[in-house]
Design a protein that fits this description.
CATH topology of the largest domain in chain B: Butyryl-CoA Dehydrogenase, subunit A, domain 3
CATH architecture of the domain at 201-343 in chain A: Up-down Bundle
Number of strands of chain A: 9
CATH architecture of the largest domain in chain B: Up-down Bundle
Largest interface: A-B, 46 and 47 residues
Oligomer: heterodimer
Strand order of the largest sheet of chain B: 1-4-5-8
CATH superfamily of the largest domain in chain B: Butyryl-CoA Dehydrogenase, subunit A, domain 3
Helix content of chain A: 55-70%
CATH superfamily of the domain at 201-343 in chain A: Butyryl-CoA Dehydrogenase, subunit A, domain 3
CATH topology of the domain at 201-343 in chain A: Butyryl-CoA Dehydrogenase, subunit A, domain 3
Distance between the termini of chain B: 41 Å
Strand content of chain A: 5-15%
Helix content of chain B: 40-55%
Strand order of the largest sheet of chain A: 1-3-4-7
Number of helices of chain B: 11
Largest sheet of chain B: 4 strands, mixed
Radius of gyration of chain A: 20 Å
CATH class of the largest domain in chain B: Mainly Alpha
Shape of chain B: globular
CATH class of the domain at 201-343 in chain A: Mainly Alpha
Amino acid sequence: MQFAFDDRQVEFRAQLRALAEKECTPADLRAAWESAPGWSADRWRALGDMGILAVTVPEAQGGLGLGFVDLVLLLEEAGRSGLPEPVVETVAVAAPLFAALGTDASGRWLEGIASGEVAVGVAAPPGAPEGPGGPVLVNAGGALLVLPSAGGALHVVETTGAGSAGLALEPKRSVDGARHLVEVGGEPPAETEVAAAGPGLELWRRACDRGAWGTAAVLLGVADRLVGFGAEHAKARVQFGKPIGSFQAVKHHLAGALVRLEFARPLVYAAAWALDEGDEEAPRLVSMAKSAASDAASVAASVALQVHGAIGYTWEHDLHLWMKRAWALGAAWGDAGWHRARLLGQISW
Amino acid sequence: MDLRFGPDQERLRVEARDWLEAHVPRAGNGGPLPSLDTAEGFDAHRVWERTMFEARWAVVSWPERYGGRDGGLFDWLVFEEEYYRAQAPTRVGQNGIFLLAPTLFEFGTEEQKDRYLPPMASGEEIWCQGWSEPDAGSDLAAIRSRADRRGGDWVLNGQKTWCSRGAFADWLFGLFRSDPAAERHRGLTYFLVPMDAPGVTVRPIAQLDGETGFAEVFFDDVVVPDAQVLGEAHRGWEVAMATAGSERGLSLRSPARYTEAAARLVALHRRCAERHPVRAARLADAVAKAVVDAEAYRYHTYMTATRVLAGGSVGAEASMNKVFWSETDLAIHRTALELLGPEAELLDDEGRPPAWLDGYLFALAGPIYAGTNEIQRNVVAERVLGLPRA
C-alpha cells in the first residue's frame, strides 16, 4: 500500500500551475466568456508543448503512455486555474477510447492529440441514459466529436463547421460563459461509425466513467480555488474592528467546506488508480468520486459566496467565474444524486 | 501509487480472520458479551482482552517485547478491518491502547514503557482519561485540579469529570496544574494515577443510555511519585495534545468501523425496500451517501498512513478527521433508524437498546468528546486555512 504521488507527478502539476498563472489569468477567463469557442488555440498548443495532452496517448503515437494517476493532479490543477479547454474530453475520455479502437484513423487522431493540434468534444445523443450533459456537445470547436448513435453504435465525426457530416450543431450558451456548448441534432452517418452497437456501448460506458472521473478531478481544483477565495477574503475584510475570519460563524463555514474537499480527494485519487488497473471496483469508485467532488464543489461555492457577502455577488469579482464552473461541472456526467443512485445499482450509463 | 495490501498483510488478514472466526464470543459461544458499561460486562470484556493478548492480537502494531507483533500502520488497519468484519466486542482497553500508548511511546521513559505497556495490552490494567473538569470542557487549558510538590512527590487535589470507563478503570491519565503562576497552557503536568490510590473517589455518572459509562473522579491529597509523570513536569499540554491528536486522528477510529456499519446499512435498506418501498426510496440517497463517506474515510486514512510512514505528521489535520468520522457515524446511524421507522424506538426483551439504537446513542457523543466539533472547526480554520484567532 502506497497511497501517494511520486515526485515526477507532483512536479508535472507545478509546471502546469506555472503555465496557468501566466496564460490563464482571470482576465483570460473573462476573454473566454466573450468569444466562441471560449478557449484559446495558443493555450491549447502550450498545453500540448508541455506534454499534458499527451499523457494518455500511447508512445507509438507520440504520447507519454502514462495513466490516470499521472493525470489526476493535472486535471485538479486545470480546475484550480479555471482552464476552459476541453482537457477532460480530450485526454481522459477520447485518447484512451482511440487507443482501444486501434485503427489507422484512430492512430492519426492520437498523434493529433499528442501534438496539440486536435481537441475533442463529446456528446450524448438525445435520449441517451446519461452522459456529458444530455444532447449537448461539451466545449465545441474541437476537431473531433465523439458520440454514440441512438442505437448504441459509437461514432467519431471530424467537425468542419455548423453542418459537419450532416449533423446540425447549434450553439448554446452556458451559465459558465467560458463553456461554449453546442447542441447536436440528427444521427451521425454510417461511415463515421467506429464501433458497432454491442462493443460500442461498452466503449461508451467506459468513456462515461472516465468523463465523470475526470470532471470530478477538475471539481476538486474548482473547490480548492473557491475555499481559497473565501479564506483570503476572510483574512482581509475587516468589520467590527477585526478581520471577519476571526469570527466563529465565518470560520466554521470555511472549515466545513474544507473538510468536504479533503475527504473527496482520496476517492478521486483511488478511482484514478482503479481505472489504471482496470480494477472491477473502478465504476463504483468513479461514482463515489463524482458524487463527493460535486458536493464538495457545491458547498465550497455556497460558502465562498456567503463569506464574501455582497462583493461576491458582483460581476466584477472573479468568484463567480469558479462558482459557475462548479455548478456546470457538478451536473455534467451525472450529478451527485445520479451517481449515488448508480452506486446502489438503481441506474447505469 | 499502489492501493493493494502487500502479501504479508494479506497473510495477516487470513490469520486474523480465522482466529476471530473461532474466538469472537457469539450466541452459543459465550456471547454476545454484556454491556461494557456494567460491572459484569466490564469484566467479560477484560477477559476478551486477555484472550486476544494471549494470541498476540491485542496490540498488533506494538513491538513484540510489549506483547505486539512489530506490525506497521497498515498491518493494524488490516487487523481492524477484520476485527469489525467479525463484529468482535468493543475494546475495553482502547483508551490505554489507542490513546495513552502512542503518547507513552513518544514521551515515556524505558521504565515507564516496561511498567505500563504489557498490563495495558493484556487487559490487566484498564485506563480512563482525566481531562475535563466542571469548569474546563472545551476550554481545557482552564483546568484547576492541582499538583503540588511535597517532599519528593506530587500531591493531587481537585476533580475530573466525564472520564470514560472511569467507573471501572484501574488507572487514569490526565492533566493537573503544577505551576499556578505560569501562563495557562504552561504549568500543566501529565500524570498517571492508580484509581485505588488513597484519596481517589470515583462517582459513576449514568449516561444518556442509562449505563454508567463515565464517571467523576475526586482527588483528595493523592500522593504520586515522579515516576508517574509522563514527559517533563510543567510540559503536560504538549504531551496531552499528542494524546488528543491520536484521539481525533489516526488511532482511535479506524475506518473499518464505518465501512462495516455502512455495509450493514445497505443490507438494512434492502430489507426495508421489500416491506416499505416508499420509505426505502426516500432514504436511498442517504444510504448511498453513508457508503461514500465511509469509503472516503477509509481511503483518506490510507493516504494519511502512507504519509506518516514516510516520516510525515498528522497535526491539525486530525481535527478534519474528527469532524468527518463523527458526522459520518451519526449520519449512518440516523439513516438506519429512519429505515426502521416506528420500530426504531423499540427496546429489546431485556429493555436494552438494540444494535442500531445503541449505536446511535454512542454516535451522538462523537461530535462532543475528544474536543467538540466546534473546537475542531476552529482548529481547522486557524491552523489549516490560516484565519486569525478570535
